[in-house]
Amino acid sequence: MIPVIEVESVTKRYGDIVAVDCVSVSIERGEAFSLIGRNGAGKSTLIRMITGITEPDAGHVKVCGEDLAHRQVETKRHLGYLPEELILYERLTGREFLKLVAGLREADQSKIDRELEFFEIAHAANKLVGGYSLGMRKKLGLAAAWTGAPDVLILDEPLNGLDVEMMRKLRLRIESERSEGRAFLISSHVMSFVERISDRVAIMRAGRIVSLGSPSELRLTAGLEDALFEDVFFHLAG
Hints:
The protein has nine helices and ten strands. It has helices spanning 43-50, 72-76, 94-104, 112-118, 134-146, 164-179, 191-197, 215-222, 229-237, and strands at 5-14, 17-27, 32-37, 58-63, 66-67, 79-82, 152-156, 183-187, 200-205, 208-213. The protein has a six-stranded mixed β-sheet, with helices on both faces.
């Protein structure tokens, strides 16, 4: 089976700084894959290359078997993306924003109300986004990522601004949809969430993946089988 994401020896430089250094990794259908590391490790740059926002200086990214560089518009429709720094259209209502996202993806708009209900912002669907709270904006961003039923959800710090109940709903939805074949690429600083949700975890340091495996395998590698997962992270991240 073809991986839904294939990253092949990608490198990205900014002047003399090597942000991502010859990284290769793949994500399978139905897998929850977490990418973690300290600030400046290269996670965001790698995610931006996977989503097609940033072009690699070397290497290739394939999404569902298609080279992102060759058919970017069509290929990106396989992806749903929640960036850490949300940029929303302040003068649109929540419903109008999701309709815009669906239109750009040439996706069915009939599921928009379902996403508004799931993320508990249906009551504000006809209000301007500029008046949304931080938590409501994050929920709208998540709803936008799910719009169009993409094959892969890329969620960068998805828990920021969410209450405990919504964090639980999000985790349960990821677990359910993973079992149905949807893949997830998640970046989060909440190590308990990373450990619970992930099939595999990649730890980045200085632009490279320095550890890769299931949470239990990383515990064995670190020799910290009974410690908190954040201790495992700090040990392996350096």
